């Protein structure tokens, strides 16, 4: 789909010419969304599209007869062409706001009206993405409706459910699939005490911890990888101390802790039946894209810090440069860097091509590609 813009054709008559497929025109209605990076974003009910300027060898000629004093005819040549392509949803701003006031079990069980949180309509206005994608992003983040407003479950509530899940896995005879790392959620939920976890909490946690059709209990599959990530985040949070290192424009604190201390504490929360199916490298793979290692190019890093993708700059070059400033040795392997870069790449843009604009690669046979910044 191509979008053609021409605003200088006439002094008073401004117009836009949009070229789309007949199927798209028949089924899609778009609105223009605000974007913090000043990029033009179009949103339908189901998809989000980015608009970028492209250079083509072809031109679009627009003519309009208008008499001048000398009797000549004006001929205008289309000078700007824009391409519209599907992109990843941009719901980070809504997530920032919701994290300011988490929802606890006390809030859920209270009968009093609570004005914390936000109306769904306000979140739609804040987000540069389609409503359908925003809904899924909110569910995946642990969003619930409390007193008519959208709020995020407090991490401690989710961690209680994760502990219950691990307790069940540690005492049951369930077989864990090492390759997919999934188990049936319906079986797990039976062992969650209803008096301790209201159904609204279990539904929200299911969206966070499950793959597949997570909105239907009978079809949802518990992802051990998601459980392990949440246990790691909670272990790091309990060890972290105030830090003067910040990420991105929103000043997210970055708290470093000793890797060996974290690693032992993290594993102490994981049942032995699960640990028996995982080796050291598989555990590190679970962490990649959610933590920073220091130094980055090391099998056994000395320090570690929790770093979610949303807390980093969204522009590729700014994000990569900040990651390298925190690497400790000026290098990043492809397996560690890719999880932080892929979430901000639009569809059709490869990691290798995009990262090559900012970094140079160093290749050694049999080892992951290592990147350093261009001089």
TrEMBL record:
What's a GO biological-process term for it? maintenance of mitotic sister chromatid cohesion
Q: Does the keyword Hydrolase apply?
A: no
Q: Which GO terms describe its cellular component?
A: chromatin; chromosome, centromeric region; Ctf18 RFC-like complex
**InterPro entries, per the entry:** Dcc1
**Keyword field contains Iron-sulfur:** no
Arranged from A to Z, the UniProt key words for this protein are: DNA replication
Q: Give the signal sequence positions.
A: none
At the top level of its lineage, which domain of life is listed? Eukaryota
Record-linked Pfam families: Dcc1
Family note = Belongs to the DCC1 family.
Q: What is this protein called?
A: Sister chromatid cohesion protein DCC1
- Organism name: Bodo saltans
* Lineage summary: Eukaryota, Discoba, Euglenozoa, Kinetoplastea, Metakinetoplastina
């Amino acid at each position: 789909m191509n979008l053609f813009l021409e605003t200088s054709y006439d002094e008073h008559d401004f117009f836009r010419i949009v070229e789309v497929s007949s199927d798209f025109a028949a089924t899609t209605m778009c609105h223009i969304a605000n974007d913090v990076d000043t990029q033009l974003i179009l949103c339908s009910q189901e998809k989000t599209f980015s608009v970028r300027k492209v250079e083509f060898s072809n031109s679009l000629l627009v003519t309009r007869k208008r008499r001048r004093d000398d009797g000549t005819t004006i001929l205008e040549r289309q000078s700007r062409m824009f391409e519209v392509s599907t992109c990843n949803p941009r719901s980070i701003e809504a997530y920032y706001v919701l994290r300011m006031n988490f929802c606890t079990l006390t809030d859920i069980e209270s009968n009093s009206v609570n004005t914390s949180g936000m109306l769904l309509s306000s979140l739609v206005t804040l987000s540069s993405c389609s409503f359908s994608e925003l809904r899924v992003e909110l569910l995946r983040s642990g969003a619930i409706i409390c007193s008519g407003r959208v709020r995020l479950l407090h991490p401690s509530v989710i961690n209680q459910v994760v502990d219950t899940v691990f307790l069940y896995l540690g005492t049951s005879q369930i077989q864990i699939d090492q390759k997919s790392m999934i188990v049936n959620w319906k079986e797990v939920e039976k062992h969650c005490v209803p008096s301790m976890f209201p159904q609204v909490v279990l539904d929200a946690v299911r969206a966070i911890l499950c793959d597949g059709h997570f909105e239907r209990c009978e079809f949802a599959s518990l992802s051990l990888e998601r459980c392990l990530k949440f246990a790691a985040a909670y272990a790091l949070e309990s060890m972290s101390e105030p830090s003067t290192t910040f990420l991105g424009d929103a000043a997210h604190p970055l708290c470093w802790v000793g890797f060996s201390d974290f690693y032992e504490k993290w594993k102490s929360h994981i049942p032995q039946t699960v640990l028996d199916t995982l080796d050291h490298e598989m555990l590190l793979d679970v962490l990649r894209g959610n933590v920073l290692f220091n130094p980055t190019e090391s099998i056994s890093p000395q320090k570690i810090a929790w770093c979610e993708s949303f807390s980093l700059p969204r522009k590729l070059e700014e994000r990569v440069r900040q990651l390298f400033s925190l690497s400790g040795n000026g290098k990043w392997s492809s397996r560690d860097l890719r999880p932080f870069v892929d979430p901000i790449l639009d569809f059709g843009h490869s990691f290798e091509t995009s990262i090559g604009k900012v970094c140079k690669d160093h290749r050694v046979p049999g080892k992951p590609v290592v990147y350093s910044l261009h001089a």
